[in-house]
Amino acid sequence: MAQWRSLAESLGATEVTSYLASGNLLCTPPGPHMDFDRTLQDAVQARFGFFREVISRSGEEVSAALAGHPFEEIDPRFSHISFLHSAPEAEAVAAAARLETGQDRWQVIGREMHLRYANGAGSAQMKEAAITRSLGVTGTARNLNTVRKLIELAGN
């Protein structure tokens, strides 16, 4: 994560910090966040030799996603928000809705996919990767504990 933070700083980001070892980077980008996403993505490819998609949200957007979580929270580890690269098409959402999920639930709201696993992600009947593929967009999921911590670290 130190290299990840250093790379962001070298590209002009300020107030750079990270949380956990799963790619959670908090920073103030030097310009529009979508431009910085692509710049950081390209820099990762150039420096480390592999592609890693960068998906970002402002602190306000993360707070709004949490506030809009549509499912009852049984256990914050069982509820996730997948931050999608872009909002999926309505037809793709309808196609994904035909996938078997058992007692697990998901719902797309804008650029986020909200998930609730009945018995935790480790024993899920729902396959998030299959749903994301069906939606035709990439995403990165965090459980609600992590989402809350990111909001706290961002000062929102």
UniProtKB/TrEMBL annotation:
Pfam families: DUF1697 (PF08002). InterPro entries: DUF1697. This is Uncharacterized protein (DUF1697 family). It comes from Nesterenkonia aurantiaca. The lineage of its organism: Bacteria, Bacillati, Actinomycetota, Actinomycetes, Micrococcales.
